[in-house]
Amino acid sequence: MPSVFLKTYGCQMNERDSEQVARSLLDRGYQRASSEKEADVILLNTCSVRDLAEQKALRKMMNLRALRKKNPDVVLGFLGCMAQRKGASLEKEMKGLDLVVGTQKFHRVAELVDQARQARREGRPGFLAEVGEEEGSESTIRDHTLAPKQVTAFVSVMQGCDMHCSFCIVPTTRGKERSRPIPEIIAEVRSLVAQGVKEVTLLGQIVNMYGRREIPTVAGKTPFVQLLEELEKVEGLERLRFTSPHPRGMKADLIGCYGRLERLCEHLHLPVQSGSDRMLKGMGRGYTADQYRRIIDQVRERSPGLGLTTDVIVGYPGETEEDYQATYKLLEEVEFDNAFIFRYSPREGTRAAKEKATEIPEQVKEERNQDLLRLLTRQAKARAKGRIGSLVEILVEGPSKTNAERLTGRTRQNWPVVFEGGPRHLGQLLTVRITESTGFTDYADPSILS
């Protein structure tokens, strides 16, 4: 039985795509390899959001070619965003590559892998590149490979993006917005719940723009809110999350879902990118810093215990010290629970990449990055003091990543909680008491567990 090793770079969308690829290969008779050294097929699912992610994947593949000394027939392939962006040119860049599969062809990976393996065995050239657009591809990411007692799952509700922010390559790598029908998504979630899943996270490049091309607004409710309300009715589903939304899609009907829909978790990841109106305009974000603040105030009014996270870019071309200080001020005022801070990385083909004359030195980017991280850490530690002694509900997901002897779960606000539990607690909703915290991870007293 042939074996496959699949490594994923990048976002949750990529993780979900890899899960679909794995499912299709398993259904075709492949088995998972425990390491790349033991695999007959090695696939890297790539990311193009930053140059660093692409370079990691390219270096990894260069090293993997050495495995051909022991196994000349091993199939090597790139999947995903970098594969979509570079296409067949990757074969010239990486001699010996067998396969390049883009973001709208994941459902064809198993078939293409079979063809590549046959070519290898027959000793003939067999390079394959599939990166064309395909109608209906948004509905092909629907199958899951669940681990024993897995209680959380990602559900892809749409593909592509039409926002065209000046720094972002995603519209090029993922294509135009395409959304799945609501009944199709509901059926997938019901199937997951029947298999023991209790929490679902809806995925989309701009998830709260779901359905705006295909589904009409009804009684003032946008398609995404219609979807959330249908998922609220799914018996056995305990928790519902979504990522990543855009501030322009945070309309009154969606804000009104917080505090109203019981299954919708008190958590929001809402990228801000900058606190400077000048930078936001240059990025093509379509909102001001004050408009962003008002959205947060409105959601917090509906959901006072909201867990709030964001994305921020530092060092965007032309970012002055004044622009940076506006970002610092916004983070200081809003008090996020956590944030992903990115040093701007030019991506070929984006509008921002043409602004070479106003590029920010890497040293300045790094200083601003570290400055914001220090602010976040101070704020997180200060807020964590208020959680000590409180009772919280967690969904136990599995062993802690840093200590296999402990278990970890997440609150509805998406705060990670580590505690000393046993196998009987896996997959359970538990109430625990917080005893200490690092600021970003809480620790719970196991003595009150049943």
Explained architecture:
With 450 residues, the chain is α/β, with parallel strands linked by helices. It has four domains: 3-130, Methylthiotransferase, N-terminal domain (Rossmann fold); 146-265, Transcription Regulator spoIIAA; 301-384, Transcription Regulator spoIIAA; 391-448, OB fold (Dihydrolipoamide Acetyltransferase, E2P) (Beta Barrel). Helices cover 32% and strands 20% of the residues. The chain contains 13 helices and 19 strands. It has helices at 12-27, 51-64, 80-86, 89-93, 109-121, 170-174, 182-194, 223-231, 252-255, 277-283, 289-302, 321-334, 362-384; strands spanning 3-8, 31-32, 41-46, 75-79, 99-101, 128-130, 152-156, 158-159, 178-179, 199-203, 239-243, 267-269, 307-314, 338-343, 391-399, 407-411, 416-419, 429-437, 442-445. It has a six-stranded parallel β-sheet with strand order 2-1-3-4-5-6, with helices on both faces. The chain has a five-stranded mixed β-barrel with strand order 15-16-17-19-18. A hairpin with a 4-residue loop joins strand 18 (429-437) and strand 19. The protein is globular, with a radius of gyration of 23 Å. The two termini are 44 Å apart.
Largest sheet: 6 strands, parallel
Average residue-wise pLDDT = 95
Q: And the CATH topology of the largest domain?
A: Rossmann fold
Shape: globular
* Biggest β-sheet: strands ordered side by side in the sheet: 2-1-3-4-5-6
The CATH C-level name of the largest domain is Alpha Beta
- H/I helix tally: 13
